[in-house]
Task: structure prediction
Amino acid sequence: MDMSQYRSLFLSEAREYLRTINETVVGLEETPEDRSGIDTLFRGAHSLKGMAASMEYGDIVEVAHRMEDLMLRVRDMGLVFDSGVADLLLEGSDLIERMMVDLEADREPRTPAGDLPDRLAGYTPPPPPPRKAADPAPAASAAEPAPAQATPSAASVPAVEPAVPSTPPPTPVEPERTKELEVTSVRVKTELLDHLANLTGELITNKNRLLSINRDLASPQLGEAVGETAKLLRALHDEVMKVRLMPFEAIVDRFQRSVRALAKKSGKELHFEIVGREIGLDRSILESLVDPINHMLRNAVDHGMEESAERVAAGKPARGVVKLSVARDRDRVLVTVSDDGRGMVPERMIASAIRKGLISPDEASQLSPRQALMLSCIPGFSTAREVTDVSGRGVGMDAVNASIQKLGGTLAIESEPGKGTRFTLALPMTIAIIHALVVQCGPIKGAVPVTAVLRTVELRRHQMTRVGNRSVFNLDGEALPLLSLNRALGLPLGRFPDGIVPLFVTEAKGRRVGIVVDRLLGQHELFIKPLGRPLSKLPGLGGGAVLGDGELITLLDVADLL
Amino acid sequence: MEERLLLFTVRGEGYAFELQEVAEVMEPSESYPIPKAPVHFVGLINFHGALTALVDLGLYLGKGRQARSQGKFLVLDPRLAGLALWVDGVESVVPASTILARSAGDGALCTERLETAQGNYRLVKVETLLQALEQGLAGAA
Result:
């Protein structure tokens, strides 16, 4: 029987099981007695084995089978779930994923199972550390827990055969799901969802066109009909976007894995907490978030978190906490990475930036503590006293900031020396259909996502002053530099005969800045389309859209343009 | 199916694309400026809902600007690119078997020189053109 037609379904379901296995392994390391976690791992490996057997993927069956056996020993034979078991299971999960990549690419398997099945089968926990002579002899019941007696010693384990009776030969099994889920949900190809979102976007563009036409016609009936259509479209858009949303859960196992590996490598004790796994984000945003979040977590573990001894000396618990949380805030999603580590010192950040020639002493004197923290987002800035191979060479926060701004989001940093640091990403729920501020600069109309606009201002000339060779204006007690979007676009500078200078405030390179434009044309709901080759290579553009009157405009990545 | 070529002219000189790489030949329509793009990127056009960059091929090849409202837009297959080329006009579509002789091209974009009954044409490879345009855009930053 030709099973190839079921391959994509197998890969999709198997990846769900691997994700569950990865997450559960990391969780079990903290609470090794958690019976439900142990059961989940056993079932996960068992289901993987069965699914792979039904597809005749022998290599995957072998690895999953040994993982299942190992968990059988944990579940029924008293083997303690220690970091050795965790490492082996994660290694098995990684190996199966690599095997699936080969399958997906429709090529001959390039990833042999190697000795992993043997190591899974022959695992014995490391002997306890030798006791000091002065240590009192432990009570007999506590000296060696029963599990160790049930586990064969390394010497007694055959080189190839599993140490425990193997489970019956694999038989195809149905994934374990609730009956309700089977009845009420269906799998849909992501291309179909993208197509649905595109059609909704086109409808919104056409609705804008009708609105534009009716501005000339001024027909009450048409206005009413378009108003109703707009309401229905809003509901349709919301529903379509909901369908495209994927829970944050879909990417968290990667963070658990990387934090675990980093903590192990740096020898730091920490607890990693994730909150808001169920919060949904647009698939495209979710995919773009993996690298920025990973980088912030690396920073938190490597630079933010102190060694245990240093923490204890500072009166803190030896074990630090790194927290990744996701929450909804109206039509935005807030992603926060926080730690209770050493925190950031604004004065040190400023001194470092001056020393590196990134800012002048004059500019430094204008910085608020908040702006000082954002200096970490300037390319080339790093306060790490020494470069480590964990978080690299301090070139990452500017890239994080740039990625978030590309998504129409913002990055904020709060920190208290000795208490910890919190990085907050504020992101739109979706990047396909957005609200944008449309601006005019010379002949060019451009759109800026409202999520990247802190506010709009119409400034009178006398409200502008100069600091050094820069024009600034005062906003909420903070002197913000004024930059010209015309200049950034290579256009002649705007003239403002009525003395009113239109601008919007945004964040660029970690600082709030005022961006002067020729005109502010108001907020529009836009369906953003990709530009494709070759324009996708032009920096500063994030796509394009059709306005109601048929005019085409581009989505500006202001931070990139500046 | 036999390969066919679309023959067109740019400032009086003959060029050719493989027909399968061209989606449509359009009359000139309104275009909208592209921020920070080099001058040969004349603007954005709406090709059945797809935002498509319009390049004045003559200007790109250093042969001067196309006169407004004249010529044709050759829209490339959207699966290959979001690109339309502004040319003088399309001459004909010919089967590859009617090419009388082929010789080496005279430039990076023109891989072959084609001799036909209608005259000589330079065969332009879309991928080569795209890569050259992309390099120019990255350099415009």
